[in-house]
Amino acid sequence: MVNIYLFIELLHTANAVTTVDTLKALEMQNCKFANVVVLSDEKIVGQLDCKDSTDGDKAILTKIAKVDGVVQTNIIAVVRPTKG
Q: What is the pTM of this model?
């Protein structure tokens, strides 16, 4: 399991709430959004949980980047949770 934290920037003409709904509904193999939040009209943050980092790469490049209104997706952190 890997948690990928994303900072997503939108076109100024995009609707942030609609984009969040679209992101939450994406069908991604071995990945799902744990949380997606609107920061402002042009900025969204999200936590993408994936089976492994390769699945995350694929989800970001082939699914998230193609969502209407998304202009840039930045990976803030990739965390591989460990049991303490």
A: 0.92
